[in-house]
Structure formats: structure tokens, C-alpha cells
Amino acid sequence: MGSFVLLALAGLAGQLVDGALGMAFGVTSTTVLLAAGIAPAMASASTHLAEVGTTLASGLSHWRFGNVDWPKIGWLAVPGGISAFVGATFLTSIPAAAAEPVVAVILFGVGIYILLQFAVDRSGPVVRVRSVPRRFLTPLAVVAGFMDAVGGGGWGPVGSSTLLASRRMEPRKVVGTIAASEFIVTIGASLGFLFGLSASEIPFRVVAALLVGGVIAAPIAAWVVRFLNARLLGTLVGGVIVLTNLRTFLQAIGFETLLSVPLYAVLIAGWLTAIILAIRATRLDRQQGTKPAVEAEDAATAAGS
């Protein structure tokens, strides 16, 4: 009973972050399961089976609070689901460890970029809402879906970070759209795991615990994201990306032992500083009467429709 409650709390914490920032349920849950001694394929399978329920609850919650950009769902969900199925089916034979450092280096760089753009850059509006080309969305979904299945989490970090870096979508819409499309991606990955593994190998008690915690947290997170400022949300997401990929990034460049502790301290301090800068910038915008670009463009769109 104790382990069930702990796993449920892990699912709850992971979904609170995932639903508010568009990432972290898969990474958090898989990390906990690996630390408990569960094999990588089993850990990823358990996480994705639980996510069938949590992503459905999260997607419905984001839809209810108006956080979903529906025209983009199909272009993300369908190729992402197919790619996730392929990644899950071949997980046991794919050298995921070889690809992980490359992805970590890319995400680390994207995280730094997002931090600078949302917390420091005041040269223009934080977000200019424009169309995102379909030729951009489909490859993004294929890469994100594959990495999600192989790594036990990746749809949010790859999808959310890339769309946020484009600065073409309001952050809450990025989070809600990625969360809603993840339901299809998760189904694709789960079918792949069920196809490649015996049902007797999957720890369904673990799946149930993660599911209970995640479903409880989903509507809370979807409600919270509506009230987070664009600068602050982008800064939070950037910090999460950087910190969750730091260890693999250091391994990839061969400096894990030498720089791990001091670099973590420097980055955490830098992230806290960036959050403070984002809060101050938001207050300054309000004092100067500057209307956020997202709100202004939304109003113009509404007036012309």
C-alpha cells in the first residue's frame, strides 16, 4: 500500500508539472521507476499506459479552459502517434543510449535559448501569434513521438520547447495543444509496447498508481496554466529543460564528474535569477501600460472575425 501511494504521488507531481509546463510526466515517472529497479522497457511501457488516462484527462481539461489550438492537433497527433508506435515496438533493439546524448545536447541548447528569450530579451513582444507551417509541425511530431517512446518521455520536452522557441504561439496554447495531442501519441506508444511485450511483463499495479495521481492533478494544472504570465511560463519551461538534460549533456561532452555539482549550482542560481527578471519585466510592462502582444493580437483577430 505504501509503494502504491508513493507512486501515485509521483504521478500527481509529474502531471502537475506536465499539465502546467507541457512536459515532465513521462520523464518524472520513468525516472522514479528506473530508480526502483524496473527495466527500461517496462518503465516506459508503464508510464505510457498510465498516460492513456492522464493525457485524456489533461487534454479535456485544457480544452475546457480554452488552452487548445485545434487546427494543429491533427498535424501533431497523427504523425506523432505513428512514430511513437514504431519507437515502442523496437525499443528493445534500438540503442536508445546512443541517441540520448544527442537529444540532450539539442534540448539543453533550446532550453538556454528559451530562458534568454523569455527572461532577458526585451527587444520586442514576447509572442507574435502567427501560423505555424504544417511542414514544420509534422517532422517535429515524428521526432518527438519517437523519442517519447524510446526515452520514456520526450513528447513534451521536444514539442513544447520547439514551439515555444518559435514564439509563434501563446505559451498556454503550446502547453494545451501539446497535452491534447499527446493522447493519440500515447495510444500509439502503448499499442507498440503491448505488441512487443507480454501482458504478464507489465506491472499494472504501477500503471494504476501513476494513473490515479495523474488524473487527480490534470484539471488543477490546466486551470493554473491560464493564469501564468507568458514570460514567467517560458522561463519556467526553459529552466526545466536545461536542468533535466544537464546530466546527459555533461556525459556527452565528457565532463560529468568534473563539472556536475558546480554547474548544477550555477544553473539553478541562473534559473532563479531569470525567474526574478521575468517577474520584474512583467511588472514593468504593466506599469508602462504595455499590453502583451498575445492579448493585443487576439483582440484584433476577434474584431476581424
From TrEMBL:
<keyword id="KW-1133">Transmembrane helix</keyword>
<keyword id="KW-0472">Membrane</keyword>
<dbReference type="Pfam" id="PF01925">
    <property type="entry name" value="TauE"/>
</dbReference>
<feature type="transmembrane region" description="Helical">
    <location>
        <begin position="261"/>
        <end position="279"/>
    </location>
</feature>
<dbReference type="InterPro" id="IPR002781">
    <property type="entry name" value="TM_pro_TauE-like"/>
</dbReference>
<comment type="similarity">
    <text>Belongs to the 4-toluene sulfonate uptake permease (TSUP) (TC 2.A.102) family.</text>
</comment>
<dbReference type="GO" id="GO:0005886">
    <property type="term" value="C:plasma membrane"/>
</dbReference>
<feature type="transmembrane region" description="Helical">
    <location>
        <begin position="202"/>
        <end position="225"/>
    </location>
</feature>
<feature type="transmembrane region" description="Helical">
    <location>
        <begin position="73"/>
        <end position="94"/>
    </location>
</feature>
<feature type="transmembrane region" description="Helical">
    <location>
        <begin position="101"/>
        <end position="120"/>
    </location>
</feature>
<feature type="transmembrane region" description="Helical">
    <location>
        <begin position="232"/>
        <end position="255"/>
    </location>
</feature>
<feature type="transmembrane region" description="Helical">
    <location>
        <begin position="140"/>
        <end position="165"/>
    </location>
</feature>
<feature type="transmembrane region" description="Helical">
    <location>
        <begin position="174"/>
        <end position="196"/>
    </location>
</feature>
<keyword id="KW-0812">Transmembrane</keyword>
<dbReference type="InterPro" id="IPR051598">
    <property type="entry name" value="TSUP/Inactive_protease-like"/>
</dbReference>
<protein>
    <recommendedName>
        <fullName>Probable membrane transporter protein</fullName>
    </recommendedName>
</protein>
<keyword id="KW-1003">Cell membrane</keyword>
